[in-house]
Amino acid sequence: MQATLTVFVEQSCPIGYYCSAGTSTACPIGTYNNQTDQVDSTGCVSCQTFATTEEGASTNAWQCVCARDYYMTLAGECELCTAAGDFSCPEQGTDIT
Description:
Helices cover about 0% and strands about 25% of the residues. The chain is mostly beta strands.
């Protein structure tokens, strides 16, 4: 079950959230928002294919990590570990650096 965090807001809406009718809602897991004053959920940008964030209210694309069995390429894409030959991806968030 995924919980939604809602906070009453009197000023500008912070990054990682979108705000409407005086409330602030965290962007859900798998998305991020690096801009202030977003008014709806379209302000939350999805991570690339086969990637997610580890928590809600993420504020930058670098918080997106590849799923288990995938690795992050230098181009920022998630590829299946078998595509890398002998490379092992034992856990979520593996990259080739």
